[in-house]
Design a protein that fits this description.
mainly alpha, globular, disordered N terminus, two-stranded antiparallel ribbon, single chain, 58% helix
Length: 502
């Protein structure tokens, strides 16, 4: 569970050892110039050591069994399964600009709170809004409900206002070879700041970073156009659009006017005359996705590898590799070098394993398709895994720090306000601690990871059918990727159970 700091630099680590012994809370004060270092709000709150061998074996068998069952099903099963929709209702985009402008106003208030409010990262709403509500809560909602970010992002409304005031202007179209490499670079920078930087929760430091990023992104949208930069450079929009493809809700866009164009189900530029919302199977929108470019492949793999390294970097195993005593954790400042190395290495290893799996599958199936086409299509099966890891890894932060966020938003400038009646709410840290609750929490996290991998196998099976209509070839092409998913299931369950420092 998260600990509260008052005016000091704090790093905490918490670890629950075997047989449900009480949690050990290590509070390490660390002064770093010129900015104090705060513990990251999303650090894991407990480690529950259960008979994990059974969970690991069961998870691996579940993923393997799902592959075998799918291989034996009729050849038209993936198409019939993904095609099913339940129409709900239609709505337009009339309020989208208004919602975005409100979001921008809220963002500006949060940045001001970061600069002038409390220095306590658990009392200031900016770190809690970014690391908990945005990076945890909204990702979860995107994976369930669809692309809410297309309405909530703080750029669309201001961009429309500026475009309306100054009229249409010619923009510079980025060259095709650029792909979404700017988004890859920016996502890596974001991951480094979140996982490696000594003070990602320092409100003032975070306010400067967030404000500067908004300004640079807005300037890029004016130069390259809103739609082009959103698809290529604004990493949050790219990430959220990919996550939204897993959602249970699908919106069939209506006819565009004013030069707008429907890109992959995303509403980016132009206005819609209407759209119908339908209920679909989770991952159904991945089945008809177009193959990603090399930069898109790198982006998805980086999204998975970064959250995986976040879990690995705190384990006794990782710290022991570099001779660090996890019970005397030296703080994030002392681990910048090994953290940066680990973040890069995790991405390289995952990318190499993925490419090897695709190459082996192509050779086993005797595929005529190029490596780029096969990898660009099958990489979409990573989305359920990345979303599952994201939810499982950050769940404790959402349960506990989400309460701190509700309290902080009522008094954003620490002036004694109570705007929403939650400023004095009691924080229930037991939402993520205690023997009974921790057992249920661990089982839920393990279930999310296993389910995510099983859905990934299902998505990969449907995508493999697009490449190889012959049943035997489709199964053969997918088998190495399934082995990789089984291995990653074991790795994910091990991360949940192994001892970790903060």
């Amino acid at each position: 569970m998260s600990g509260r700091t008052e005016g000091g630099a704090v790093e905490h680590c918490q670890n629950q050892v075997a047989h449900l012994l009480p949690c050990l809370l290590l509070v390490l004060a660390l002064a770093i110039p010129p900015t104090p270092a705060f513990a990251h709000a999303s650090d894991r709150g407990h480690v529950l050591l259960l008979p994990t061998g059974y969970y690991v074996a069961g998870g691996a068998l579940a993923v393997a069994a799902s592959f075998l069952v799918l291989a034996l099903l009729p050849s038209d099963f993936p198409t019939r399964f993904w095609r099913r929709r339940l129409p709900l209702f239609a709505f337009g985009d009339g309020a989208r600009a208004t919602v975005s402008l409100i979001s921008f106003a809220g963002f500006a208030i949060l940045v001001a709170a970061g600069l002038f409010g409390s220095r306590d990262p658990l009392s200031n709403p900016l770190p809690l809004a970014i690391w908990t509500l945005l990076w945890v809560g909204l990702v979860l909602l995107q994976g369930l409900l669809g692309n809410l970010w297309s309405w909530l992002n703080p750029w669309y409304g201001p961009w429309l206002v500026i475009s309306g005031l100054f009229g249409a202007r010619e923009t510079w179209r980025p060259p095709p070879w650029l792909g979404c490499w700017p988004a890859v670079v920016l996502f890596f920078t974001f991951a480094w700041f979140e996982l490696i930087d000594p003070a990602p929760d320092d409100p003032a430091r975070l306010a400067w970073a967030a404000g500067l990023y908004w300004l640079l992104s807005f300037a890029a949208m004016l130069v390259f156009g809103y739609r082009d930069w959103s698809r290529r450079g604004e990493f949050l929009t790219v990430f959220f659009a990919m996550v939204a493809r897993f959602a249970l809700l699908e919106r069939n866009e209506g006819k565009r006017n004013e030069g707008g164009r429907n890109e992959g189900g995303r509403n980016e530029g132009g206005r819609n005359e209407g759209g119908r919302l339908s209920l679909c199977w989770p991952g159904a929108k991945l089945s008809d996705a177009a193959p990603l470019s090399l930069s898109g492949i790198a982006f998805l793999l980086l999204a998975l590898s970064s959250v995986s390294f976040d879990g690995l970097s705190k384990t006794f195993f990782w710290l022991g590799l570099f001779g660090l005593n996890p019970l005397e954790f030296p703080g994030r400042t002392a681990t910048i070098g090994i953290g940066t190395l680990g973040l890069v290495l995790m991405f390289v290893l995952l990318a190499a394993a993925f490419i090897v799996a695709i190459v082996l599958g192509q050779r086993l199936a005797g595929s005529p398709h190029s490596l780029g086409q096969a990898a660009g299509l099958l990489v979409w099966s990573i989305v359920p895994i990345a979303l599952a890891y994201h939810v499982a890894h950050y769940l404790t932060a959402l349960l506990v720090d989400g309460q701190y966020a509700m309290a902080a938003l009522s008094d954003p400038f620490a002036l004694g306000w109570n705007l929403f009646g939650t400023a004095d709410m009691r924080i229930e840290a037991g939402a993520a601690a205690g023997a009974g609750l921790a057992w249920w929490l661990w089982n839920f996290q393990a279930g999310v990871i296993i389910t995510g991998h099983m859905l990934a196998v299902l998505v990969a099976h449907g995508l493999a059918w697009r490449l190889h209509p012959v049943p035997a070839r489709a199964a053969l092409s997918q088998s190495p990727l399934t082995v990789l998913m089984i291995a990653y299931t074991v790795f994910g369950l091990w991360l949940l159970a192994t001892p970790a420092a903060g």
